[in-house]
Each structure stands twice: as structure tokens, then as C-alpha cells.
Design brief:
CATH architecture: Sandwich
Domain B30.2/SPRY: 1-165
Shape: globular
Helix content: under 10%
Strand order of the largest sheet: 1-2-13-4-9-10-11-8
Number of strands: 13
Protein name: B30.2/SPRY domain-containing protein
Radius of gyration: 14 Å
Number of domains: 1
CATH class: Mainly Beta
Distance between the termini: 11 Å
Largest sheet: 8 strands, antiparallel
Number of helices: 1
Length: 165
């Protein structure tokens, strides 16, 4: 894809999660933590990818979310240590492929060892997703090209590990 590898913003509250540049690992069990990239998407930086290094110890498919987070108010930013992406006003897909937030998105499951690539088209409000030979799209209505968006991940279970790649 020829993209810049994003770094995880260590300034967001992240109880129970260790951050090392591009990688985050959940070291405690239970309770949501949402992380975002340091830099927002832009017209020149609209592609990113996330590798699921370990989906963690949860048996259900809802304990790991990946997606987009809008620019947050200071009050909402302080809540990232206890909420998942769509609870913060964003748009996400769970490991089981279910979608959360106010958008129309194809079902898109993923698991350990998957790399999910994203391409954001701000003009149409469409995100394109690819993982191996699987493709999907999501459409977020009502966004303007000038809206600030960040790639994000929400973690819940022990030993979950993800990396921007």
C-alpha cells in the first residue's frame, strides 16, 4: 500500500495496556481501553493497517474493536480508558465482524495473524477494508472532508496484542 506506519498515541488513558510505538498489549482482563493513532488521517495519509498479533483470551468475538475515532472533546478523551470506539462516537467492527456506531458497513470478521488494511475516502465518507482475499466497505454518513478522524483500536481481554503495520 505504500503507507506511513502510524504510532499509537501514548497520551490517551490506557490502564492495563502497554504501548511500544506501533504496538499495544493488554496486560489485564476486563474493562474497555481505546487507543488511537498519534496523527489523524489526511488527504495524503488516508491508508493504514492493523495486525492482530493476538486476539486475547476472550472466547466471544466482541472484545476487540478496530475502526475510526473522531476528534474528541477533553471530557470524551479522558473516557478512552473505559469505553470502546463507538461509545466514544466512532465507528468500528468487532473481531466477529459485527459493526458498531452510526454507519453502514459490511460484516468483516478478523482474528489472530490477520492484517486488516484500511483506505479512507473523505470525499465520499467511505472506508475500504482488505484482509487477505476478503474485502469490505463501510460508509459513514454526514461527515465533512474537513472532519478529523483517527485510526483506533479498543481492547478488552487479557493478552490482546495489536500493531499498526
Amino acid at each position: 500500500m505504500g503507507l506511513d506506519i502510524l504510532e499509537i498515541d501514548p497520551a490517551t488513558p490506557h490502564p492495563g495496556v502497554t504501548i511500544d510505538g506501533t504496538t499495544a498489549q493488554r496486560e489485564t482482563n476486563g474493562g474497555w481501553v481505546t487507543l488511537r493513532s498519534k496523527t489523524p488521517l489526511s488527504t495524503t495519509n488516508h491508508q493504514w493497517a492493523i495486525r492482530i498479533l493476538d486476539q486475547g483470551e476472550g472466547a466471544d468475538g466482541s472484545g476487540l474493536m478496530i475502526g475510526l475515532l473522531p476528534q474528541l472533546s477533553a471530557q470524551m478523551a479522558s473516557a478512552t480508558g473505559g469505553k470502546y470506539i463507538s461509545e466514544l462516537g466512532g465507528w468500528c467492527i468487532s473481531r466477529a465482524g459485527d459493526t458498531y456506531g452510526a454507519w453502514k458497513c459490511d460484516r468483516f470478521p478478523y482474528s489472530t495473524d490477520c492484517v486488516v488494511e484500511f483506505d479512507w475516502d473523505a470525499a465520499t465518507g467511505t472506508v475500504y477494508m482488505v484482509s487477505g482475499n476478503k474485502k469490505g466497505t463501510g460508509h459513514i454518513p454526514g461527515l465533512k472532508e474537513s472532519d478529523v478522524l483517527y485510526p483506533a483500536v479498543s481492547m478488552y481481554y487479557l493478552n490482546q496484542k495489536v500493531a499498526f503495520v
